[in-house]
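Inputs:
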Amino acid sequence: MKPEVYINELSKHVGETVTLKGWLYNKRSSGKVKFLILRDGTGYLQCIVFKGNVTEETFELADKISQETSFEVTGKVKEEPRAIGGYELDVTDLKVIGWAHNYPITPKEHGIEFLIDHRHLWVRSKRQVAILKIRHRIIKAIRDFFDERGFTLFDPPIITPNASEGTSTLFEMEYFDLGKAYLTQSGQLYAEAGAMALSKVYTFGPTFRAEKSKTRRHLTEFWMVEPEMAFYDLNDDMDLAEEFLEYIVQTVLEEKAEELKILERDLTFLEKVKRPFPRVSYTEAVEILKKNGVDFEWGDDFGAPDETIISEQFDKPVMIHRYPADVKAFYMKRDPENDKLALAVDVLAPEGYGEIIGGSQREDDLDILLQRIKEHNLPQEYFEWYLDLRRYGSVPHSGFGLGLERTVAWICGLEHIRETIPFPRMIYRNTP
RNA sequence: UCCGCGUUAGCUCAAUGGUAGAGCAUUCGGCUGUUAACCGAAGGGUUGUAGGUUCGAGUCCUACACGCGGAGCCA
């Protein structure tokens, strides 16, 4: 039943007669010759049906076969520079497996609403296939990077009893007799427990934010990878983030050139993603904004336009470190040289793609952490287990989180994050 | 939540307040090398919903629904 050969294996079968299976991507015809474009998930193949080379029934079938009809095709493989993919099939036989009548997504343009309504079919399109393959390669690069450096994958729970940073942005549910539970918005606190057991860990899974954010950079369900390392300070954390981004981008450039070409991605900025990246402090970043005519007050957090102005000053990802503690989370350690600053770092992607990494050195002192929890009005009883990490052999430690979909959007050069995940979940859409 | 724009054929879009059209898709016909092929023909409409102004509304007004873009917040 399974296909004898896939399109990406054809170079090994030139001159042979083979049978392939797939779907009709497009069709052109010129009287007594039909050009059927087969797609099978590995590539695209032009199948030539000459009237003289096949039976009357087969030629008639080639005339009737419609877009996205699944079929089996037999023919002789030949090299053909004029054809997509460089190979062509001289068809001798054709069998329809499942008809497709009036496939809604035509080869012409469509609006975004229509495409998202048909996301289950849209994923068959050439661009979407290319994006999904790059997403997969990025995920593999992420796992390879940590696995090769002695990290252990440490899976955090998806259902959690408490918020890591306030409850307004959480998806809530009833959890049997135990009251409310929530979908996780970060695995970080659990990763810290893992780092105390395994020294270097990473979590990688879906996270959820019920924020009413309606922008090209937000999903309510997205994937995040979060490494957490015992005995790392903020500088070690930044070194790792830098090496990590370079590895992901250079791996995709090497191995997914074909897909990037389908997306018509300009590679000049991606090729420059090599260490070292510029590192500027928050205070220096504020100076950059002021020099560019922005009315900005020290102590505020950067907005999207501010981030764009800062990242436009550089041609690589920028690391901004030491933010005002007031705009950052309770678990971040204060700078010993300036109590107003948190040992935090954000990494901004170039070309206006904004924040893709947020990280910090964590507060490792029990008494200070207790005080922060009080200052943020967080319920201490939910954090007792987390405080235990400081009661029993606390060590300096650091970590960061990388948003997978933002990274995919950046590397693929996409306008909107919704194309980076098979079925995007957004504030006004949870179907299909 | 706030600001702005939009909703017309299956899809993408036209249409000074005066007979709702085109391209693609579909169906039929033509073409032996097409590259979102091309050429010819046909079918296809409760103009988002509910009101209002007008001799006359796709077009103007009001409300609502849905969508898109942006802001805030964040990865």
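Chain A has a mean pLDDT of 92. Flag for discussion at group meeting.
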